[in-house]
Structures are given as C-alpha cells and as structure tokens.
C-alpha cells in the first residue's frame, strides 16, 4: 500500500505555498500522492491588512487539529523563518500537540522540511536545526534532503538560490517581492520525489 504523505505549511505571502506545490508535484512524479494543508493564521485580519498579506488561502484546507496528522506515514513541513526560528503560527500549532507528545501519535513518523527566508543568512539552517528539538520530543524520524539527488543545482553559484541539505528553500526578499526561482522549484520537486521514495521504502518494509 502506498504511504500517506501530508504537506503542511504556513505561507503569509505565498512563497512557501509555491514550494509546497512543487514538493507535491515531485511526489506525484515519483508515483505517489500527497495532501496539502495550511496551519491556522494567528494574526488578526487588521494586522494582515496592514502588512499587505492576503491571509489564508481559500482553496487549501486548514489543519487546526494536529490529530489529523496522526493518520499519515510521513509529512513535509513548510516553514518561513522569523529571526532564524519558527514563526509564531507554527509555534502555536506545535504547542497544541501535547496529546501526541504523550501518546506517541507522531512517534516513528517520517518528517522533512522546506524553508523560506527574506535573505541570505536569514536562518534557513538555524530554523531547520530548531525543528530537530521538536522532532526529537515527538520521536519523528527526520529525513534530510542531502546533496546527492540535486548536487549540480544546489552547488551552482551562477545565481542566488535557496535550498540545502536540510531541505528545499527560497529567498523572498525583505519586501516579499522575490518569488521562488526555477532552481528552487526544481530542488523542491526533487526533494518531494526522494522523500516519497524513502517513506515508501520503510512503509513497505523493504528498507
């Protein structure tokens, strides 16, 4: 039986959503399927309006209850950074997972990451490292992306691009004007495909 994969993200301006869709495309190219979810917004509409943020997407379900994630074999999490760490929206979501922490609801599940920062040095790596503590407390098995499957693209310095061994990534610029590049989309698609293959290998018992 094919493994169940969820892609869960928070995206204020749409950058992380584009990476999420690329991850999903990669999974589908590898022969799998994935469900897209966004986590709840914690900012009031008044603040979002002042930030020129469109608010939650109307066409993607909101995962308000972490229990929903228990039925999946693996999940890719899309995290935009705030000062080198989780944004409040993600932290608020994780703070509701006490039940899973105690019961082992996420124990043994496989997880991967993709990230977005405003700039170079904005915290993609530190945010991924911060996620390791949360994964460890829940017993989530982290699946790093590594370099092997996209080495040429990831080490190509002819243009600025996000993404690294921790997972796919993008740079949004300080005003959010930069959109994910073709290279960044390609890296995300490859990560999605390889994550699916890894989860499928373990879910089938062939690993």
- In helices, the fraction of residues equals 25-40%
What is the molecular shape?
globular
The percent range for strand residues is: 15-25%
Mean model confidence by pLDDT: 94
**Given the structure, what is the number of helices?**
7
Number of strands: 6
Descriptive overview:
- The two termini are 15 Å apart.
- The protein has seven helices and six strands, in the order βαβαβααβαβαβα.
- By secondary structure, it is an alpha/beta fold.
- The model has no long low-confidence stretch (mean pLDDT 94).
- Strands 1, 2, 3, 4, 5 and 6 form a six-stranded parallel sheet that branches.
Annotation keywords:
7 helices; globular
Question: Helix and strand layout, with pairings?
Answer:
Layout: E1 5-9, H1 15-29, E2 34-38, H2 45-50, E3 74-80, H3 88-94, H4 98-103, E4 110-117, H5 124-138, E5 141-142, H6 151-154, E6 167-171, H7 182-203
Parallel strand pairs: 1-2, 1-3, 3-4, 4-5, 4-6
Short description, anyone?
The protein is an alpha/beta fold and 207 residues long. The protein has seven helices and six strands, in the order βαβαβααβαβαβα.
């Amino acid at each position: 039986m094919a493994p169940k994969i969820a892609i869960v993200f928070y995206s204020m301006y749409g950058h992380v959503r584009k990476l999420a869709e690329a991850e999903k495309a990669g999974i589908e190219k590898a022969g799998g399927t994935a469900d897209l979810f966004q986590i709840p917004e914690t900012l009031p509409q008044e603040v979002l309006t002042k930030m020129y943020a469109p608010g939650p997407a109307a066409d993607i379900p909101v995962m308000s209850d972490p229990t929903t994630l228990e039925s999946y074999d693996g999940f890719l999490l899309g995290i935009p950074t705030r000062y080198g760490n989780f944004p409040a929206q993600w932290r608020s979501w994780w703070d509701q997972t006490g039940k899973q922490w105690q019961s082992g609801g996420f124990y043994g599940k496989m997880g991967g990451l993709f990230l977005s920062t405003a700039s170079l040095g904005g915290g993609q790596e530190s945010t991924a490292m911060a996620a390791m503590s949360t994964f460890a407390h829940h017993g989530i098995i982290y699946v790093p992306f590594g370099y092997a499957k996209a080495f040429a693209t990831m080490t190509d310095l002819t243009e600025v691009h996000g993404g690294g061994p921790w997972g796919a990534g993008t740079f949004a610029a300080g005003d959010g004007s930069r959109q994910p590049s073709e290279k960044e989309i390609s890296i995300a698609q490859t990560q999605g495909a390889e994550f699916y293959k890894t989860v499928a290998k373990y879910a089938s018992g062939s690993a």
